[in-house]
Amino acid sequence: MDEEAKREFLTAIEKTHGRQLRRYLAARTSTLADVQDLTQEVYLRLLRVENHDAIRNPQAYLYTIASHVLYQHRLTRAAAPPWDETMDAAEEIRSAPDTDPARQVEAEQRFEQLGRALLQYSPRAYATLVMHRCDGVPLSEIAEKLGVSYTMVKRYLAKALLYCEQQLQEMK
């Protein structure tokens, strides 16, 4: 398929389903930047398809690609370096001056509240997050301890990080 036909196909998909795609991604991510990046990745993957005429249901195909992109995005975030906001909260507890006990207590309560909420939401996601981020246990070892696959541990970690991020956004 030539480049002009690919562009026409992509333009038609964007006009027909672009707004709904962005809403779909926005409902499943936390930031506008993520939505923009993921939308771009979906369209790039569509451009890589050689035979657009073989796609019988473009909308279903689009959302299948979008769900794969979201899944990979979550896995990537789960394997990313320590999570900024959680680490900021932990650092705030450690660095709170001894002369301001009210601020230190507030930070500790916020951190504990986040931990309790995650524990209620998903005990395995909580355990995975604590073992990996606080204790430095490798994901493969966590998988053995929990009796699940390595992939499942990555999912637990992604779930925990996404949940914590949402809770921190609500606390602000």
Q: What can you see in these coordinates?
A:
The protein has 172 residues and is an all-alpha fold. It has 2 domains: 3-78, RNA polymerase sigma factor, region 2, helix turn helix motif (Rna Polymerase Sigma Factor, Chain: A, Orthogonal Bundle); 84-171, Winged helix-like DNA-binding domain superfamily/Winged helix DNA-binding domain (Arc Repressor Mutant, subunit A). The protein has helices at 3-26, 32-48, 58-78, 84-95, 101-121, 123-134, 139-146, 150-171. Helix 1 (3-26) runs antiparallel to helix 2 and helix 3 crosses helix 8. The mean pLDDT is 80.
- How far apart are the first and last residues' alpha carbons, in Å? 50 Å
Report strand %.
Answer: under 5%
Spans of at least 5 consecutive residues with low confidence = none
Tell me the number of strands: 0
- The overall pLDDT average reads 80
